[in-house]
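Quick one, probably user error.
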């Protein structure tokens, strides 16, 4: 088979065959196709889109590029939750310990932050000593013992995605519905989970800008999961502002602790309870959401959910005693960004805030760049709130040597908050649900 002909066919809008897609994935994974041809292929795919069959075959070939994880030795149904990515999205750190405290075995493979979006692994690594490179058997053993493990993706699992994702990130081909669907679903299928709950984020901090795109992506991913025989459901959530207030690895972990201690922020608490409750239902509990949510609230109130997160961190080598905020933030400067006028917060430029954290070294622009876990941002306002001139909009956490650089950019940060004289209608956090009986949206 000839890669140039395959690129040409896709460029000209022809439907690729299962064999052509399998050839591309195998040959690129095995370094037989150079990056420049793979980049041309991806761009053709991005611009032309893909049929259902092409997306399914691409996913299937990616699954076959590596080994499959076998979770069958763990008793009970294994349910995974996965987000398409966002800013301030620390939901895996809150909803999964809560679901584990409710008795669900959770074996989760997470990713690192890329571009403007954060990644659960980076947040976990803000705990000194934390090991997110457990072997498959270590991971299974830990889930057997404490019911919860969040780990990095092993090298053997979907190696095709590791290469393709890194290439997409630097060729402006991330935000493609079929490519995102194949990337995420291949990893979920290979990770051996029985059921999958997807968080499809939509808005100016997500890869999908509009609700219509988000719903299209959600339906496609649900269909792929079902075709592999894995029950898959999706919740489309609002990412038109960061989730919670904290953006940045340590700050987000601290906020996750706070949520599991029973405190705010309200949006994080609401989604934490909602996602965990949906997972409990997917595990076979036939109670309604209004019955399950109070039970889960109780697991937060009595400290069980937080205990589960602590147990996991400690079990994976994390030294949680060293997370005392005074020590952690000792060398960190805090700078407030103030409102330049009165008004209601109409827009928060979420992606730009995510990129600002990256430029403070809180995220990475290239796959293996080292990051600074302590830097970040903390929103002082959310959309719809009324602020007066001089009131804080944002708190920046940066290193001493970044102070001047941040001070010079305060006016840019100010502009990321658009203020309006008119009060805005409040927006829903959950925009749509796909696959559930009592559906929202
Ligand atoms: N997360 C992934 O794992 N893949 C994508 O393509 C986008 C988000």
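Nope, works fine. Designed sequence:
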């Amino acid at each position: 088979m000839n890669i140039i002909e395959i690129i040409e066919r896709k460029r000209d809008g022809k439907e690729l065959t299962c064999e052509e897609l399998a050839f591309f994935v195998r040959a690129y994974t095995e370094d037989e196709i150079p990056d420049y041809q793979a980049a041309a292929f991806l761009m053709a795919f991005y611009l032309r889109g893909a049929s259902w069959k092409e997306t399914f075959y691409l996913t299937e070939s990616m699954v076959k590029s590596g080994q499959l994880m076998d979770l069958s030795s763990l008793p009970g149904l294994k349910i995974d939750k996965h987000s398409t990515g966002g800013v301030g999205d620390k939901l895996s750190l809150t909803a999964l310990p809560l679901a584990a405290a409710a008795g669900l075995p959770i074996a989760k493979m997470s990713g690192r932050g890329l571009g403007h979006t954060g990644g659960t692994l980076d947040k976990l690594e803000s705990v000194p000593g934390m090991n997110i490179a457990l072997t498959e058997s270590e991971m299974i053993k830990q889930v057997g013992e404490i019911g919860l493990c969040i780990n990095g993706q092993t090298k053997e699992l979907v190696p095709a995605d590791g290469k393709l994702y890194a290439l997409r990130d630097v060729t402006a081909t991330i935000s493609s519905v079929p490519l995102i669907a194949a990337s995420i679903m291949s990893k979920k299928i290979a990770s051996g989970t029985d059921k999958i709950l997807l968080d499809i984020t939509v808005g100016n901090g997500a890869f999908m800008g509009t609700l219509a795109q988000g719903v299209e992506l959600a339906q496609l991913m649900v269909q792929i999961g079902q075709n592999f025989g894995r029950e898959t459901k999706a919740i489309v959530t609002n990412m038109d502002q960061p989730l919670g207030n904290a953006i940045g690895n340590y700050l987000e972990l601290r906020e996750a602790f706070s949520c599991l201690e029973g405190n705010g922020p309200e949006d994080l608490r609401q989604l934490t309870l909602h996602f965990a409750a949906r997972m409990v239902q997917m595990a076979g509990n036939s109670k309604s959401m209004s019955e399950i949510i109070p039970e889960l609230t109780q697991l937060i109130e009595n400290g069980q959910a937080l205990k589960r997160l602590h147990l996991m961190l400690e079990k994976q080598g994390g030294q949680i005693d060293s997370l005392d905020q005074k020590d952690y933030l000792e060398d960190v400067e805090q700078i407030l960004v103030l409102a330049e006028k009165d008004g209601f917060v109409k827009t928060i430029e979420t992606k730009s805030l995510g990129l600002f954290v990256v430029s403070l070294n809180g995220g990475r622009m290239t796959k293996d760049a080292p990051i600074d876990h302590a830097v970040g941002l903390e929103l002082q306002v959310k959309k719809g709130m009324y602020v007066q001139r001089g009131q804080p909009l944002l708190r920046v956490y940066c290193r001493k040597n970044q102070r001047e650089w941040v001070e010079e950019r305060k006016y840019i940060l100010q502009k990321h908050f658009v203020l309006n004289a008119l009060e805005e209608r409040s927006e829903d956090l959950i925009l749509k649900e796909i696959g559930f009986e009592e559906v929202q949206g």
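The mean pLDDT is 94.
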